[in-house]
Specification:
Layout lengths: L17 H19 L16 H18 L4 H18 L2 H17 L5 H13 L3 H14 L4 H13 L3 H14 L3 H14 L2 H13 L6 H17 L3 H14 L4 H13 L3 H12 L5 H18 L3 H17 L9 H11 L5 H12 L5 H13 L3 H13 L5 H13 L3 H14 L5 H6 L5
Helix pairs in contact: 1-22, 2-3, 3-4, 3-5, 4-5, 5-6, 5-7, 6-7, 7-8, 7-9, 8-9, 9-10, 9-11, 10-11, 11-12, 11-13, 12-13, 13-14, 13-15, 14-15, 15-16, 16-17, 17-18, 17-19, 18-19, 19-20, 20-21, 21-22
């Protein structure tokens, strides 16, 4: 039975007015053509030297621990320690650091219950990492009650509302933050909101403004923004601009894993399998990020092997990736459910479908962004639950997303339900959004027969 989707934050539209929708998609696409081929995104500063991120954080950790030993009641040092634990969690993917961050933040708040924004922000970020978005929103709002212009608190609210599919609130907060501080980070976040809403022209405008606002000390954020921009352009079939952005990100931060995996995905889409495997292999040698990125690289390499027709090698790589997932005791706590479900679906073994369904039903209890809804719909189609899949995809599209994969999956669902006209409109929409969308893409995203 289709689980009840928590749609209290989503502006409901009871029907998809496809004639209007397709006109808007076509009009937006034609408006984008000049933008999709323009820009040069050269980094205006000297690229930083490669550094040992975890090594630096461990030194920072030792410094804060030493301060606390000398002054045990220093709540602010305890909050700084919590923040360092949080940075280690993000750098390594090890959930134990999140737990230590939460403990240190609690200890800091026991010593200084009021005006302790640093510890409160850490607690909110840990909640967000757990995909406990309601708690993250509550904690961020508590910070804003005392610090109305807190950039970290507003950032948490934007990403949390994006996670639960409340794009209207995410946009309102992003607008406010950009008005207060139009920085690389705030403009990038608002660009992501526009992407989620299907507002491509506004997204590009914000992304480009973000890069104009970048500062030399923001190398990590500069690489992050370019990678997200590259992902956007790739999703619109503009491989040239996407590649330029990924390469620029990797010049800023050599072996930046987010850029490596997206560049590898682009190479895979273009059938450049050797280049894709080379890029994925670089992820494994990036020691700072080994825990958090290895399973992504393994899944990507499995996908490449499968596309090459080497099913035994693909199965071996999928199993290695799954083993890494199973080693994490935090599967239900720190948001790995959707990623594991996607792995199980890529492997295409009907024996995996019951677990994939359980994983996605649990994930939908905490987040309802378009990717989560699409992954859920993918499980439902594999189970032959076409009407339920139709409803899940409709909910995703009601958020405004313009995604070729979701449109194409919608077409397949309508075909199965005997709605030929609706199916044709979905397929046309997929091609409008991404004119390069191919049979290989269908295979990559579980859309092939």
């Amino acid at each position: 039975m289709l689980i009840t989707l928590n749609l209290r934050f989503i502006q409901r539209r009871r029907q998809l007015l496809w004639g209007v929708s397709l006109l808007l998609i076509a009009t937006t696409f034609h408006q984008l053509k000049p933008l999709l081929t323009t820009p040069s995104y050269d980094y205006p500063f000297s690229s930083p030297n490669e550094t040992d991120i975890t090594g630096q954080l461990e030194q920072e950790l030792a410094f804060h621990k030493n301060r606390i030993r000398q002054t045990p009641e220093d709540a602010l040092s305890q909050a700084a320690l919590a923040n360092t634990y949080l940075k280690l969690a993000r750098a390594t993917g090890d959930a134990n650091w999140y737990l230590l961050a939460e403990q240190a933040a609690q200890q800091s708040l026991q010593k200084l219950p009021f005006n302790n924004e640093g510890a409160q922000i850490v607690q909110a970020k840990v909640a967000e990492a757990r995909h406990d978005f309601d708690r993250a929103i509550l904690l961020a709002n508590q910070v804003l009650a005392n610090q109305p212009y807190s950039e970290p608190a507003q950032t948490i609210l934007i990403t949390a509302h994006l996670g639960i599919g409340n794009l209207t609130e995410a946009k309102t907060i992003a607008d406010t933050l950009v008005q207060q501080i139009p920085t690389l980070g705030s403009l990038t976040l608002r660009g992501l909101v526009h992407v989620a809403q299907g507002q491509d022209t506004l997204a590009i405008k914000d992304f480009e403004a973000a890069l104009k606002a970048e500062e030399p000390q923001e190398a990590g954020s500069s690489a992050w923004t370019r990678t997200l921009m590259g992902r956007f352009y790739a999703s619109r079939g503009n491989y040239q601009t996407a590649r330029q952005l990924y390469q620029e990100a990797l010049e800023i931060l050599p072996r930046y894993p987010l850029a490596l995996v997206h560049m590898a995905s682009l190479e895979t889409r273009q059938g450049h399998y050797r280049a894709a495997k080379r890029l994925y292999s670089q992820v494994f040698t990036s020691q700072e990020y080994s825990n958090v990125w290895d399973h992504v690289a393994l899944q990507g390499m499995a996908q490449v092997a499968n596309l090459q027709g080497n099913r035994p090698e693909a199965q071996k790589l999928w199993q290695q990736a799954e083993d890494q997932f199973r080693q994490h005791q935090d599967l239900d706590t720190f948001g790995h459910r959707r990623a594991l479900a996607q792995l199980l679906l890529d492997r295409d073994d009907t024996a995996d479908l019951p677990e994939a369904l359980v994983l996605m039903e649990a994930d939908l209890e905490v987040r309802q962004d378009a990717e989560t809804l699409d992954t859920y719909a993918r499980v439902l189609t594999q189970l032959g639950r076409w009407e339920d899949a139709q409803q899940a995809l409709k909910t995703a599209l009601e958020q405004g997303t313009r995604n070729a994969v979701i449109f194409y999956r919608g077409g397949l669902v309508e075909q199965q339900l005997g709605n030929a006209a609706a199916a044709s409109e979905y397929f046309e929409a997929a091609q409008m959004v991404d004119p390069t969308f191919s049979e290989r893409d269908q295979q990559i995203w579980g859309l092939a027969d």
